[in-house]
């Protein structure tokens, strides 16, 4: 079954046999980074962009690890059946043999990866994609959200808060400025223009966010990367969120108030179709080079 075989420090082994030391700094301090990468029928989606961000996260934490990731990830996917899977990849600074905040340069990082089945959102068709509800809540995170680090307690708290309010995602706001979702990036549409928070250390540079902007540029849809506030969110014609496992989803309700009359908007539909085309080209091998 998908998910049975995991990768740990150079070996492909059953999940039940994978063990990590209690002195691993990922466990003790959240001293680690991660990626979530979708694979469709064994093909990585935006793999280069994920690996680029991984290198950024590793270098921000000064974890000196140069590795050929692609081959390992593809083998893991194949060993788990090669279907539609998201790969979770985590790298910790390693096992120091004791608990101490400071670390030695020589440490051997722990590398772990596993798979989870995902829905092929591109095969689903727009009619079968449900709009979501979100809440808006305070952004309690640190100021290096550009690093995809495992210290996710603030994200977990807001996502749980969303769930307990009957919502699917929590958008976060700091000093009156919207940042992003607990596990997604944010887009607003107003008068035919797409707006999204600009890249900074307050948000994660989402690989799906980057693709939205790339596809918008190619299709001649205007967009702006800028600060957005709560009033703009509520007054939007459309609101979307984006992430690797959810692509672009329409938000139909913010804090219990309808957006765009509570129905999926026309620009979302257009963007979804652009994503579908992009995915189709990737799967049929019509795409080459850096776009993948
Ligand atoms: N989350 N912002 C945050 C805080 C995220 O956790 C994520 C992704 C994104 C979107 O990034 P991308 O488009 O590269 O997936 C933005 C992943 C899916 C997760 O933690 O499960």
List keywords for this structure.
globular, single chain, 6-stranded antiparallel beta sheet, D-amino Acid Aminotransferase, Chain A, domain 2, binds N-(5'-phosphopyridoxyl)-D-alanine, 9-stranded mixed beta sheet, 2 domains
- Any idea what the radius of gyration is? 19 Å
- CATH fold-level topology of the largest domain: D-amino Acid Aminotransferase, Chain A, domain 2
Cα distance, first to last residue?
Answer: 28 Å
- DSSP strand count: 15
> How many domains make up the coordinates?
2
Q: Summarize the biggest pleated sheet.
A: 9 strands, mixed
What is the CATH class name of the largest domain?
Alpha Beta
Catalytic activity: L-valine + 2-oxoglutarate = 3-methyl-2-oxobutanoate + L-glutamate; L-leucine + 2-oxoglutarate = 4-methyl-2-oxopentanoate + L-glutamate; L-isoleucine + 2-oxoglutarate = (S)-3-methyl-2-oxopentanoate + L-glutamate
InterPro entries: Aminotrans_IV, Aminotransferase-like, BCAT-like_C, BCAT-like_N, Class-IV_PLP-Dep_Aminotrnsfr
EC number: 2.6.1.42
Enzyme class: transferase
Please provide a written account of the structure.
Its EC number is 2.6.1.42. Acts on leucine, isoleucine and valine. This is branched-chain-amino-acid transaminase. It catalyses: L-valine + 2-oxoglutarate = 3-methyl-2-oxobutanoate + L-glutamate; L-leucine + 2-oxoglutarate = 4-methyl-2-oxopentanoate + L-glutamate; L-isoleucine + 2-oxoglutarate = (S)-3-methyl-2-oxopentanoate + L-glutamate. With 292 residues, the chain is α+β, with helices and mostly antiparallel strands. It has two domains: 5-117, 2-Layer Sandwich (D-amino Acid Aminotransferase, Chain A, domain 1); 126-284, D-amino Acid Aminotransferase, Chain A, domain 2, CATH 3.20.10.10. The protein is 28% helix and 28% strand. It has eight helices and 15 strands. Strands 7, 8, 9, 10, 11, 12, 13, 14 and 15 form a nine-stranded mixed β-sheet that branches. A six-stranded antiparallel β-sheet has the order 2-1-6-5-3-4. The model has no long low-confidence stretch (mean pLDDT 95). The structure holds N-(5'-phosphopyridoxyl)-D-alanine. N-(5'-phosphopyridoxyl)-D-alanine (PDD) binds at residues 36, 180, 183-185, 204, 206-209, 242-245.
């Amino acid at each position: 079954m998908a998910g049975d075989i995991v990768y740990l420090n150079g070996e492909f082994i059953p999940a039940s046999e994978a063990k990590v030391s209690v002195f691993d700094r990922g466990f003790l301090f959240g001293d680690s980074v991660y990626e979530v990468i979708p694979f469709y029928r064994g093909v990585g989606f935006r793999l280069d962009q994920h690996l680029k961000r991984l290198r950024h996260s590793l270098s921000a934490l000064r974890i000196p690890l140069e590795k050929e990731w692609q081959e390992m990830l593809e083998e893991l996917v194949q060993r788990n059946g090669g279907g539609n899977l998201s790969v979770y990849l985590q790298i910790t600074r390693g096992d120091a043999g004791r608990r101490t905040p400071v670390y030695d340069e020589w440490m051997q990082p722990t590398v772990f990866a596993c798979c989870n089945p995902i829905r092929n959102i591109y095969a689903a068709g727009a009619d079968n994609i449900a709009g979501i509800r979100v809440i808006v809540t305070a952004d309690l995170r640190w100021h290096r959200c550009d690093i995809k680090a495992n210290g996710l307690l603030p994200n977990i708290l807001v996502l749980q808060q969303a769930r307990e309010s009957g919502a699917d995602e929590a958008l976060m706001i700091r000093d009156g400025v919207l940042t992003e979702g607990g596990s997604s990036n944010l887009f607003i549409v107003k008068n035919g223009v797409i707006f999204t928070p600009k890249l900074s250390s307050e948000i994660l540079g989402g690989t799906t966010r980057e693709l939205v902007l790339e596809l918008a540029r190619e299709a001649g849809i205007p967009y702006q990367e800028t600060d957005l506030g709560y009033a703009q969110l509520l007054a939007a014609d459309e609101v979307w969120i984006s992430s690797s496992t959810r692509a672009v989803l329409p938000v139909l309700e913010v804090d219990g108030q309808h957006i765009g009359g509570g129905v999926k908007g026309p620009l979302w539909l257009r963007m979804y179709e652009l994503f579908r085309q992009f995915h189709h080209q990737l799967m049929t091998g019509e795409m080459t080079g850096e776009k993948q």
